[in-house]
Amino acid sequence: MLVKPCLPLLVIRAKVVGKKTVSNAIKYNIQQIKMFKCPDQVIHAVFTAPSPAACGVTLDLNKEYLFTGKLETGRMYITLCGYNLPWEDLSAAQKKSLTRRYQSGCDCKIIHCTSLPCPISTTDACLWMDWGTNNGRNLACIKSNGSCAWQ
């Protein structure tokens, strides 16, 4: 069986169980509940910048979150630009997509658009430009017929 190597992007459901300042970062100790991407990884902490001005994420202790972040030198880093929401804030469709449909979107990238124009020049990406609406709460970026699209 051929196993794909994990990309540096991780998607995880976890509960925050501790907080500590380490050098120029905040370390949140977590209890991993489910790893949606790179399932062979076990993460015990997420790291973020010390303030929102530096793109740092503020988390509540004893709360479950969906984290998206990058794996760098064995550590998971999260930022304000990532998708880091309390688990309870996810819609039923989002939770279903994560637990049942996520694998079919693993070959797709999501390109975050913060201002127009937002060109996409590849078929393996979906454009995310959900400015103040909840349209994305019911969609998943899925590969179908050789290209990625919101479904």
Structural commentary:
With 151 residues, the chain is mainly β. It has 2 domains: 9-87, Beta Barrel (OB fold (Dihydrolipoamide Acetyltransferase, E2P)); 90-150, Tissue inhibitor of metalloproteinase-1. Chain B, domain 1 (Alpha-Beta Complex). 7% of the residues lie in helices and 40% in strands. It has 1 helix and 10 strands. 14% of the residues are buried. Its main location: secreted. Belongs to the protease inhibitor I35 (TIMP) family. GO terms for molecular function: metalloendopeptidase inhibitor activity; protease binding. This is Metalloproteinase inhibitor 2.
Give a short overview:
The protein is mainly β and 151 residues long. It has 1 helix and 10 strands; from the N terminus they run ββββββαββββ.
Topology (SSEs and partners):
Layout: E1 9-22, E2 25-37, E3 45-48, E4 64-72, E5 75-77, E6 85-86, H1 92-101, E7 109-112, E8 125-128, E9 141-144, E10 147-150
Parallel strand pairs: 3-5, 7-8
Antiparallel strand pairs: 1-2, 1-4, 2-3, 4-5, 4-6, 9-10
**How much β-strand is present in the residues?**
35-45%
How would you characterize the largest beta sheet? Answer: 5 strands, mixed, barrel
Strand order of the largest sheet: 1-2-3-5-4
* CATH architectural label of the largest domain: Beta Barrel
Beta strand count: 10
Tell me the number of helical segments per DSSP (H or I, 4 or more residues long).
Answer: 1
By oligomeric state, this entry counts as single chain
Structural class: mainly beta
N-to-C SSE series? Answer: EEEEEEHEEEE
Q: Which radius of gyration do the C-alpha atoms yield? A: 16 Å
The termini sit apart by 29 Å
Structurally, the number of domains stands at: 2
Q: What is the helix content?
A: under 10%
Identify the CATH class of the largest domain: Mainly Beta
Organism: Oncorhynchus kisutch (Coho salmon)
Subcellular location: Secreted
Keywords: Disulfide bond, Metalloenzyme inhibitor, Metalloprotease inhibitor, Protease inhibitor, Secreted
Protein name: Metalloproteinase inhibitor 2
